[in-house]
Design goal:
Elements (H helix, E strand, L loop, with lengths): L4 H30 L7 E4 L4 E4 L2 E2 L3 E2 L2 E3 L2 H5 L4 E2 L1 H17 L5 E3 L21 E5 L2 E2 L5 E2 L20 E2 L2 E3 L1 H17 L4 E5 L5 H5 L26 E6 L1
Helix pairs in contact: 3-4
């Protein structure tokens, strides 16, 4: 029990460890950003079997986004090709201009040298990213996806077939608008979106929004078949 002497000691220990660990994780994450190479990135192979040279780290936060986990960031689980990083940062900033209260949570992307990043089955060549869904409260106010450790940093959250989880609801209009912004920024950097993975039941909900009806060719990049894990709390983008 938390009220017992033993419970109080355990709680105090957790708080103390967290207070010590936070600045260390913060410093480690930003140090990775500071140590990024200036040499152009080289992506080899495919998203399922590849490698990456001269990777770039997605910063822990910036206009319109923040990391899913300072621990994951500090451990180097958010590396991508330089053009992918620049595409995402620009897309987040563009969305932030029109919806400043919206903060996207960036998920796992890849390791500094690419290759297998468990438990993912892709993310190997710096051209894959996970981004958590934009969510709103019941009153329509944008909320950041909760990515606490006890939810496996957000990956264990389970939304229903209409995009609801408790007081949260996926904002499919914001998602469609953001995908268009990513597409625009990717093309400006010589990239294109090759695949967008969301759970299949969300595809019609996405396409029936105002921005979803204007996705054009981008709509064909949405997967219609289930992936090996349900992509309800986050969406996955492969670039080429």
């Amino acid at each position: 029990m938390i009220g017992s002497p033993r419970g109080k000691l355990a709680a105090l220990t957790i708080v103390t460890v967290a207070a010590i660990a936070f600045p260390a994780l913060l410093a480690a994450a930003w140090l990775r950003v500071a140590l990024d190479s200036s040499v152009p990135s080289i992506s080899r192979g495919t998203v399922n079997s590849g490698s990456l040279e001269h990777a770039r780290m997605i910063p822990p936060w910036g206009p319109g986004f923040s990391t899913y986990s300072l621990l994951g960031s500090a451990l180097g689980r958010q590396y991508v090709h330089a053009n992918v990083r620049d595409t995402l940062i620009a897309a987040f900033a563009a969305h932030h201009t029109s919806e400043p209260e919206r903060v996207f949570a960036t998920g796992e992307t890849g390791l500094p040298g690419g290759g297998r990043i468990r438990p993912h089955r892709s993310h190997e060549n710096g051209m894959s990213v996970d981004i958590f869904m934009p969510v709103d409260a019941k009153n329509g106010t944008p909320r950041r996806m909760p990515t606490w450790p006890w939810t496996k940093f957000g990956y264990a959250l389970e939304f229903d077939t209409t995009g609801n989880l408790g007081v949260l609801h996926i904002d499919f209009e914001a998602l469609a608008r953001f995908l268009r912004e990513v597409d625009t920024e990717a093309r400006a950097r010589g990239l294109r979106i090759e695949r967008i993975i969301v759970t299949p039941e969300y595809v019609p909900l996405l396409l029936e929004t105002a921005s979803g009806r204007n996705l054009g060719e981008l709509a064909t990049r949405l997967t219609r078949k289930p992936a090996w894990v349900r992509h309800d709390e986050h969406f996955h983008i492969d670039f080429a």
